[in-house]
Amino acid sequence: MLVAEGLTKKFSGLVAVDDVSLHVAEGSLTGLIGPNGAGKTTVFAMLAGFLHPTGGRVLLDGVDLTDEAPYRRARRGIARTFQITQPFAGLSVHENIAVGAYLRHARRADAMDRAAAVAERVGLSHELDKPAAALTVAGRKRLEVARALATEPRLLLLDEVLAGLNPSEVRDMIPVLRAIRDDGVTIFMIEHIMQAVMNLCETVYVIAQGRHVAHGTPQHVCADPQVIEAYLGHGAAARIAAGGAHARG
Ligand SMILES: Nc1ncnc2c1ncn2[C@@H]1O[C@H](COP(=O)(O)OP(=O)(O)OP(=O)(O)O)[C@@H](O)[C@H]1O
Questions:
Q1: Transferase: is it a keyword of this entry (predicted)?
Q2: What are phi and psi of 119, to 5 degrees?
Q3: ipTM of model
Q4: Taking the model in full, what pTM does it have?
Q5: CB of 39 shorter than 6 A to ligand 1
């Protein structure tokens, strides 16, 4: 469904993303992981059209979107969330979600109905009339997902929607994300919380210092010495293997 070919982004002298290629299959739940500063959010910004790549292409169903503005990609069915949530603080939760729904529903009543249905899916039904500013961190994360979902995407790009949540809030959110996918929305998610990645994702891409390191099932990438080195530093994989052998011995 989504293909990135050789995506590259340079900021002056810094190569934030360096020749990254990836595929997201329709109906899948795919992860993007990597250490801080690896270039994950920059990849998402290029997929959603917020940044223009220095090199490479983005294709959806074989159509080249590289030069399309974000709102055009949204119409094609790509929605993204932001790592730092910024709801319209003066609007209610219901109105915030409706902002996304206006993409496909011009009448206020229709947008509000759509927003209420989306709130139900993400567990915000009881908070609809609250000002968005009154939500907890967990509520704001759900609102971020809801605003994107209200655009009725085919592909949802989630940028660390579990960051800042406590373990029980993470556990509550996992089935919400799985249900969104089961309803037919393809999900590509950046996530640091490995419990969620292991639970949710069928395929995971790993990048570090802007470059592709590995991809495969979560189990496969976690056992990959290059991934271990990317997170823990040079020589870590060998030290862990030696420690394991020592423990077994
Ligand atoms: N607009 C920008 N101008 C200059 N440098 C940038 C810009 N955006 C990102 N960078 C740099 O590009 C690199 C990749 O940043 P990015 O935010 O994509 O990483 P990330 O993997 O999402 O990190 P994190 O997990 O910490 O959110 C970093 O070194 C960052 O400082």
A1: no
A2: -60, -40
A3: 0.96
A4: 0.92
A5: yes
